[in-house]
Model the fold of this input.
Amino acid sequence: MSGLGLDLVSGSHLGRVVGRHPGALWELFTPGELAGCGPAPMTEVCALAGRWALKEAAAKALAVPLRPTEIETPTSLAGCGHLRLLGQTQRAAGEGQVLGCTARVGELVLAVAVRVQGAAGG
Done:
């Protein structure tokens, strides 16, 4: 392990932010992440909160500025999975990968991301 990041997100807070700025969805999430929420991403705020928390945690694990659309979360947030890194974020990770997990308690989502240096796979 060469980096660890934690983040806690409130689903209702994210819902208020996106409610005020609906176009922000496309700035914060990739098309694949939004497609995973079904036809109405605004109704899937809890799922989006988990994705947002993972992005924040991953940026902390990598010690890089957060570029939301350069960190793609797993299609299913049940359990743990590899995060897909793109662009400058991918270059910053080098040969490393980021593994992420989420846990939900009510409307709060806790995300943990671990940077694993030199891990194989994708």
User: Anything to note?
Assistant: Helices lie at 11-20, 24-28, 31-35, 45-62, 87-93. The domain at 3-116 is CATH 3.90.470.20 (Ribosomal Protein L22; Chain A). The chain has a mean pLDDT of 84. The CA atoms of residues 26 and 78 lie 23 Å apart.
